[in-house]
UniProtKB/TrEMBL annotation:
Cellular component GO terms, alphabetical: PRC1 complex
Native source species: Emberiza fucata
Gene that produces this protein: Pcgf1
Localization, UniProt: Nucleus
Protein name in the entry: Polycomb group RING finger protein 1
SUPFAM superfamilies registered for this protein in UniProt: RING/U-box (SSF57850)
Keywords: Metal-binding, Nucleus, Repressor, Transcription, Transcription regulation, Zinc, Zinc-finger
Domain of life: Eukaryota
Length: 223
């Protein structure tokens, strides 16, 4: 058994695999909850440092049912204790347990690392595991701008895939203004709605320290 331990023990928690999950890029295996939590702050394999995915590493994880069956057969009582723990978890919260469909081995749809449950993909946060960029939003000083509206928190961290239009909507929501009254600028130049944060960073801020400095202006509501 000692000779097999290194093959059935998770590198991250040093315990036996639970919901064994394998990285498809390098074939290293971990507990599902361990690797999902680890990849919230990294996109590299913790064992060999292979890049798993540029922006969404969870897409390249796959549940390893064969490995999990082997672990349960080799470690007496592990499956029973895990089933008991899961059952108590759901009972303590008054939830109905939902079993995962047998043909679905992907991990990306269950980012919390808990036993499979129903998930509303229409409300999913698809940018959660992207690379992020830090922004500083300063109000543009102008004699024409009579508005007193100003952000209380000017620092923002968002996905590199977010677009200027997303940023404008956030500003409008925080300032209580309509979309047509807010404009985002870089060096006094209005930025197009379709431009992404990655395009902006590479074309205007590459090589400079974070945060990327942007300005916003508020148009007169009477116009």
């Amino acid at each position: 058994m000692k000779e097999l331990n290194e093959h059935i023990v998770c590198f991250l928690c040093a315990g036996y695999f639970i919901d064994a999950t394998t990285i498809t890029e390098c074939l290293h295996t971990f507990c599902k909850s361990c690797i999902v939590k680890y990849l919230q702050t990294s996109k590299y394999c913790p064992m060999c440092n292979t890049k798993i995915h540029e922006t969404q590493p969870l897409l390249n994880l796959k549940l390893d049912r064969v490995m999990q069956d082997i672990v349960y057969k080799l470690v007496p009582g592990l499956q029973h204790s895990e089933e008991k723990r899961i059952r108590e978890f759901y009972q303590s919260r008054g939830l109905d347990r939902v079993t995962q469909p047998s043909g679905d081995d992907t991990v990306g749809g269950d980012p919390m690392g808990l036993p499979y449950s129903t998930f509303d993909h229409s409300r999913a946060h698809y940018f959660r595991y992207d690379e992020h960029v830090s922004l500083c939003l300063e109000k543009l000083s102008s004699s024409k701008d009579k508005s007193k509206a100003m952000l209380q928190q000017k620092y923002v961290r968002c996905s590199v895939r977010a677009q200027i239009r997303h940023l404008r909507r956030v500003l409008c929501h925080r300032l209580g203004l309509s979309l047509q009254h807010v404009q985002i600028l870089f060096d006094n130049e209005p930025l197009p709605d379709h431009m992404t944060m990655k395009q902006l960073w590479l074309s205007r801020w590459f090589g400079k320290p974070a945060p990327l400095l942007l300005h916003y202006s508020i148009k007169d509501k009477r116009r």
